Amino acid sequence: MNPLDGQLPRQIDSSRFCGASLVKDTIYDSLSDDQLTKVDKICTDFELAYGEDHADSIEAVVARHSPDVPPVLEIELVAAEVQLRLGQGESFTAESYVERFPRWGHEIRCLFAETGETLGFAWGDTHQERDLDSDMKLPREFGQYRLIEQIGQGGMGTVFRAEHLRLQKDVALKLLTPAIMSNEVAVERFQREMCAIGKLDHPNIVRALDAGEIDGVHYLTMEYVDGIDLRKLVLATGPMRYQDACELICQAAKAL
After folding, report:
1. What is the DSSP secondary structure assignment for residue 21, as one 8-state letter?
2. Which residues of 35-73 are buried (b: 16+ CB within 10 A; e: fewer)?
3. Rounded CA gap, 18 and 128, in Å?
4. Which helix (H) or strand (E) is 58 found in, with range?
């Protein structure tokens, strides 16, 4: 006897897996919790790497993990990339994704229709091309912080060097991009990122100091580390000596 007989179907959290509200059959219900967790982790890794010079395309990510992940990984990655590109103010069409992923044509068109309705524009007009940071004049105050300069830009948000006004201390402040804030799925992932970072405590990892929401804007406050990252260092000075490279890899490995 099937132990699930007589029980209600499992409800998939659509704030975590947006494809669950787009796919018309029961494919998500047939997935195990381990499969759903793996899909979610791959999507989170994809979002964190998005925008880097060597970031993989959706097709490359799917190929790397096949056949160990279910086909819904594709539509989840499409949904994630759409939100990331919106966050960067890019202009694009549903059909450009349908051509790449024809098996999900109906779901992609539904995704674009729902996203346009949420953000208040019709695809094809110029609203999605607006400059999201056009009114971000610096320095400016944000709650108990003063934004001083922009030091980073990712798919999910913008990172500023800021001053904590009460502590008179420099911090790194990540603000969720305006377009992303209108999407519950992206906000949920940002909140999971905040929780994950908040649990980390190691000398080789930048620590989270605070997180919250001010006037509808979600933020994450982290330690500010003055200097340049490894990518900029290599671009400026060229290939490193293998001894130095090994030392840096060792530091990163200890953090992991």
Report:
1. G
2. bbebbbebbeebbeebbeeeebebeebbeeeeeebbebb
3. 21
4. helix 58-65
End-to-end alpha carbon distance in the chain: 45
Is the distance from CB of 179 to CB of 87 less than 8 angstroms? yes
Tokens describing residue 173: 């402040």
pLDDT tens, position by position, 171-223: 999 988 766 666 676 677 777 778 888 888 888 888 889 988 888 888 999 99
Q: How far is CA 96 from CA 18, 78, 100, in A?
A: 20, 11, 7
pLDDT tens, 51-81? 776 778 999 999 999 888 888 889 889 988 8
And the tokens for 43? 């999507």
DSSP 105-165: HHHHHHHHHHHHHHHT--BTBSGGGS-TTTT--SSEEETTEEEEEEEEE-SSEEEEEEEET
d(CA 252, CA 154): 21
Neighbours of 162 (CB within 10 A): 29
